[in-house]
Amino acid sequence: MNLFEHLGGQMAELRKAGTFKEELVLQSAQGPRVRVGGREVVMLTSNNYLGFANHPRIREAQKKAVDRWGAGLGSVRFICGTQELHKELEAEIASFFAADDAILYMTCWAANEGLFAAVLDEPDGLYSDELNHASIIDGVRLSKAKRFRAPHGDLPALEKMLADDRTSRYKLYITDGVFSMEGEEANLRECLRICETQGAVLAVDDSHATGILGKTGRGTAEEQGIHGRVPVTTGTLGKAMGSAAGGFITGPKALVETLRQRSRTYLFSNSLPPAVAAGALESFRLLKEDPAPVAKLRHNAAYYRKALTDAGFTIPKGTHPIVPVIVGDTAKALAMGKALFEEGVYVSGFGFPVVPQGHARLRCQVSAAHERADLDRAVDAFRKVGKKFSVI
């Protein structure tokens, strides 16, 4: 048996077990409702939290950018790939997070992979919450620093680990601001206190909070009353802020300058295309002008969470527009996702190894673009499918 026969056998086993993930093809632009397979369905599995993916002002900004700046740069930033657009967007992001400076990447995955190896070395200590996103895990693996896996949410244990570490030259703790499978916020206020007390730098991946949490959408820190105090923030432009692509890191000027000189995923990746940079820039401007979409998103999430809970589904407590419906078995979660699609609701099932064994779920993601009728339609479909699969 050769390698490809081996891989083919593994895929056949996934199909037999009902855990093979099919890709559905959209026949429309992203939005609260999309066209798939010739019919319209309610979209409940997109990161388009603010409804900016198809916003007319953002589309117009992207068109103008292509007309003025072209389709792409054909280069990395430090050679000839920096345009005024990139500098404007970096300044806008830094201002948004009340940081000294910001640096753009092609994705937040690239930002997380490029951060730690550039600023930490063998004498240093790198601490990471055990449920952090895969991009953080990969970034940690690339660093030469000593690695410490912090128990999820156990901040007394983290404090003890940092206090017991008397050999590391510098210490950095990285956590998701919002954990994407749970919609759960990290306790950043306490994380910050511990890091300041123990001489560590706090870094937060706020991908699922930027544009989403806080009164003005400035993320988990604003939501918890510490806006402007988190030393390092990584995030994405591919979710709430335009939903196209792009990532960033904010922090002190010395950090950003170091990343421009040493971060391999920045140095050896092409610049953000002009249309993507312009669309993200317009997203930040829209949000600054009027944070109403943030308020509507919060209202939609609260309404949907209550409706599913009242219907009898098991949903972790929270306020985030990520609404996980716990099913337990992976095959059942994926089968329910297919059944929901047949009922006109597009939602994704997740199981092991994305989530722990026995904690498979359907992850719903509410948008500010959803209307009450969309959410009611989804709840009706969930109620029908939940009864069919004996979940309620």
Report what the structure shows:
- With 392 residues, the protein is α/β, with parallel strands linked by helices.
- It has two domains: 18-49 and 291-388, Aspartate Aminotransferase, domain 1 (Alpha-Beta Complex); 57-289, Type I PLP-dependent aspartate aminotransferase-like (Major domain) (Aspartate Aminotransferase, domain 2), CATH 3.40.640.
- 43% of the residues lie in helices and 17% in strands.
- The chain contains 14 helices and 15 strands.
- The protein has helices at residues 3-17, 56-69, 84-96, 108-119, 134-142, 155-164, 188-198, 220-223, 253-262, 264-267, 274-289, 292-310, 330-342, 372-388; strands spanning 33-36, 39-43, 101-105, 125-129, 146-150, 171-176, 178-179, 184-185, 200-205, 232-236, 247-251, 322-328, 345-346, 348-350, 360-365.
- The termini are far apart.
- The mean pLDDT is 96.
Describe the structure in brief.
This protein has 392 residues and is an alpha/beta fold. The protein has helices spanning 3-17, 56-69, 84-96, 108-119, 134-142, 155-164, 188-198, 220-223, 253-262, 264-267, 274-289, 292-310, 330-342, 372-388, and strands at residues 33-36, 39-43, 101-105, 125-129, 146-150, 171-176, 178-179, 184-185, 200-205, 232-236, 247-251, 322-328, 345-346, 348-350, 360-365. The protein is 43% helix and 17% strand.
